[in-house]
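Lab notes, practical 5.
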Amino acid sequence: MKDWQEFIDSQPKQLLEQNFICDADEVGLILVTGEDATEFMQNQLSNDINLIDEGHFQLSSYSTPKGRMLAIFRVLRISNGYILLTTRSLVLPLLQRLQMYIVQSQVALADASEHFARFAIQTDTAAVIEHPLLAQEVGASFQNDSVFSLQLEPQAGQRRYLVLCLSVDEARSLWSEFSAALQVAGYSSWKLAEIKTGMPVIHPQTSEEFVLQMSNLNLLGGVSFKKGCFPGQEIVARMQYLGTLKRRMFLASLETLQLPVPGDEIVTRGKDTVDGSGKIVDAEFARDGLCYCLYIARIEKAESGKLCLLTQPDTAFKNIDLPYGDENEAAIGQ
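Output from the prediction step:
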């Protein structure tokens, strides 16, 4: 995909929050194929892989036996297996770990990131959202021989899509068609939208840091408590049914000129050493000059407004309501 990368590198990288198209090169792809692919995925991931088909994708996660998440995926069912969409910098270590559990199963794993041109869209423009190659409802996927598209959770009243193309020529043609109605942005625009929708992500700095409920994955439909065993299932189930969750993920704004990075320590105000209060999940600046972030912290401290960044003690977290809440828990992640 060298030609695609050169094309993307030549595009503007401005920060936009509405009606934009941007590259999605930071999204990595793992291809899982073989006659035992479904059983293998069912035994490894937190959600029930049997509940998805080629017309819908699924949110899921992969954890250690101690219940600490290694990755969060959007799982796309394709004709010969699955595509797992995750943080690109995690793809190779995940492949190495998953390979250890194949044993004698008929399963093949591959890094498919270089085989697809990838871009993202956020818009309410009719000419775009009515395009026949874009999935037509949230949670749905569209597929043909060379194009795959997923419609994600909306942001600010606009629809959001991830598009994967096997052909560079087709990707450039679609980009040209969509960009005629949209502005071209950088990936930070998409990252900001993901943060504002409350969608957690695992980076190398936060791998093995969080149990899935801490990241609100149970509220987002990213786990099944009925499917049976998967790595960390006992810890996840105990936390769910015994009510032992002491940390969860929050959305906040910060007034700062220094962008926090995943894994940055959060402490109680007045503390100058790590005290286990919390960590940054992800952060990005917005056009209003504020930094928006997702962070996981001790619930009582986050709700009391007593937290700050260890490296920025004068920077306070101003919590913002997430677009989903506890009332969804009973209906999601069955």
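Observations recorded by the TA: The first helix runs from residue 2 to 9. The CA atoms of residues 93 and 132 lie 36 Å apart.
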